[in-house]
Write a structure and sequence with these properties.
With 350 residues, this protein is α/β, with parallel strands linked by helices. The chain is built from 14 helices and 14 strands.
Length: 350
């Protein structure tokens, strides 16, 4: 029997933002047999407003006026699916939680999670994308049977291994998860990459930018005259070709911090493209990378990142051969959808 499923999200930008892509995938997949709707809060301008049959979106500032509608919508829906973090601010205290599950797609510090524990206990299920998030919930006394780990997905059909064809080019490290705000440079590892690029002058660092704070990173590059730091400031349509031009992809996070994906999309896309990853110990994908030997994990310092680069270059073929099969084992889109099919089916039975 068809059900009404509503997804509650923040800053929904499925064209290029990883969490939004996951929601769009779920909504499209389950719309074949059910009625799906997306409720979105954004920061893209006070006048940006959308109201359609399957999509309702407005600025955060208007939420005090519309949260009664959000609550009424949650009462009418058969399944409410919050897709934010364990410390969710706008939805946990408003929706009818008796018919609600939450996916913690973004990280959140434990202090904020602890403040939400009374709401978390009321949820039907909590989906996390890492062992760290599961440990946080268990520490708050949530029953293990309420928690499930489902890794983020990648569409394996859109990625394939293409070797670097320019054999005269420098060893190229791609960073495809650049920040949009200058205040995020430190935690997202921009400062670490800049400092490392100054020392590792024979390595090409390719940064994919997305408009925000581009002038600042451009200024840093020019002031410090870092010729091996390359910037691209555009939305890339064929990302597989971008991975093809790189030898590996890096996730240089320097801390576990709010709003960072613990398993970044660019890392799993790189693996699907057959390219190894360099990942900081401050990510949850680090454990998988170590276990499957599809890249090198480093502490977020210039010294240890330089060590990791040399290790990857020295044993590149050994790491590269494990990449695609790691993506297939953990991050298949088909597995992702089947797991959520099972979660929804369990809820329907209750």
């Amino acid at each position: 029997m068809p059900k009404k499923i509503t997804y509650y999200v923040q800053r929904y930008r499925p064209a290029y933002e990883a969490i939004s892509k996951e929601v769009a995938l779920l909504a499209e997949h389950f719309s074949k047999d059910h009625t799906t709707k997306i409720f979105n809060l954004h920061l893209d301008g006070l006048t940006s407003f959308s109201l359609h049959q399957n999509f309702f979106s407005h600025h955060f500032s208007f939420y005090p006026l519309t949260f009664p509608y959000a609550y009424a919508l949650s009462k009418k829906s058969d399944i409410n699916h919050i897709y934010t973090s364990l410390g969710d601010l706008p939805y946990l205290g408003v929706l009818n939680l008796q018919k609600t599950i939450l996916t913690a797609a973004a990280s959140c510090n434990f202090t904020k999670v602890k403040k939400k524990q009374k709401y978390l206990h009321q949820l039907l299920r909590i989906i996390v994308e890492s062992e760290k998030q599961k440990r946080d919930l268990l520490a708050l006394g949530l029953p293990e049977q309420k928690i499930e780990i489902i890794y983020p997905p990648v569409d394996l059909t859109k990625f394939s291994y293409l070797p670097v064809t320019n054999h005269n080019s420098s060893f190229t490290i791609l960073y495809a998860s650049c920040p949009t705000r200058e205040q995020d440079f430190e935690k997202r590892g921009i400062n670490l990459l800049v400092n490392t690029a100054e020392q590792e002058k024979n390595i090409k660092f390719q940064l994919l930018w997305r408009l925000g704070a581009y002038e600042k990173i451009k200024e840093i590059k020019e002031q410090r005259n870092i010729s091996n730091l390359h910037l691209t400031n555009t939305i890339v349509n064929d990302i597989n070709q971008t991975y093809a031009k790189a030898h590996c992809t890096i996730i240089p996070y320097t801390a576990f911090d709010d709003y960072l994906k613990l398993i970044p999309n660019s890392a799993i896309e790189s693996l699907a493209s057959g390219k190894p990853v360099l990942v900081s110990s401050k990510t949850e994908i680090a454990a998988i990378v170590n276990r499957e030997k599809c890249g090198v994990v480093f502490e977020p310092t210039v010294v240890d990142l330089s060590r990791a680069i040399q290790e990857l270059r020295k044993n590149y073929a050994q790491y590269q051969k494990n990449c695609r099969k790691t993506a297939e084992k953990y991050f298949s889109q088909e597995i992702f959808l089947k797991r959520y099919q099972g979660v929804y089916a369990e809820i329907e039975e209750k």
